[in-house]
């Protein structure tokens, strides 16, 4: 299991948070999603054998939010 942390531009409303969380939670391989409204960050735990951080960032981008950067921490096995 890996963790991706995406830095976004400022989120303007709580419904943005729910839209991002819902879209990412539907992706195969995603286990846990946390959207940090005030920090404009998204933390996603995902299975790197099923989906990549780039694909998850694309999901957020297609919703209309700019992903400034993505950091991935690969879990030690």
TrEMBL record:
Family annotation (Pfam families): HMA
PROSITE patterns found in the cross-reference section: HMA_1, HMA_2
Keyword RNA-binding: no
Protein keywords: Metal-binding
Domain (HMA) ranges: 2-68
Coiled coil ranges: none
InterPro entries: Heavy-metal-associated_CS (IPR017969), HMA_dom (IPR006121), HMA_dom_sf (IPR036163)
Repressor keyword on record: no
Protein's UniProt name: Cation transporter
């Amino acid at each position: 299991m890996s963790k991706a942390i995406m830095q976004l531009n400022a989120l303007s409303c709580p419904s943005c948070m729910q839209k991002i969380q819902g879209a990412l939670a539907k992706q195969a391989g995603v286990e846990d999603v946390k959207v940090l409204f005030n920090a404009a960050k998204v933390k996603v735990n995902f299975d790197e054998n099923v989906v990549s951080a780039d694909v998850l960032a694309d999901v957020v981008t297609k919703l209309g939010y700019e992903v400034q950067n993505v950091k991935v921490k690969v879990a030690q096995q």
